[in-house]
Amino acid sequence: MSTQTTQTTHQNYSTTNPFQTVPWDNINQPGTYICNWSGHLLRVPEDGVTAGRSPMLNIVGYEPLFVTKISDDPYIPLTKARLLASNYDINVNF
Fold first, then answer.
1. In this structure, are residues 32 and 74 in contact, taking their beta carbons and an 8 Å threshold?
2. Model confidence, pTM
3. What's the CA gap between 39 and 8, in Å, rounded?
4. How many CB atoms lie within 10 A of CB 78?
5. Region class of 31: left (phi > 0), else alpha (psi between -120 and 50), else beta
């Protein structure tokens, strides 16, 4: 009689500051964000927050533009991003 064990690995898509809402101009950490004004997904890689690196993105709007960070991983799968956003009632448009 032999027993077989399987080990499963779970990817951790959480964030150090879960669902922290910050102004667009204050994004300083890589990760996955949702734009609060439109529901679009925003992936910010490590190069996106390094000083002096390009491409640099500038968004101008009338109201303060806020984003909500949902994961430290900028390459989170879309279905997981939608699930995380729905757990906190964040509207998505992706």
1. yes
2. 0.76
3. 33
4. 11
5. left
> Phi and psi dihedrals of 33, rounded to 5?
-125, 155
- Greater pLDDT, 62 or 76: 76
* Amino acid occupying residue 36: N
First to last CA, the chain: 51
Total count of residues recorded for the chain = 94
pLDDT in tens, 78-92: 999 999 999 888 999
26: its two tokens: 């204050």
Distance CA 2, CA 69 (A): 46
Place of tokens 């669902």: 19
At 86 the three-state DSSP class reads: helix
Which pLDDT tens digit goes with each residue over 19-72? 789 998 888 899 999 999 999 999 999 888 887 775 567 778 788 899 999 999
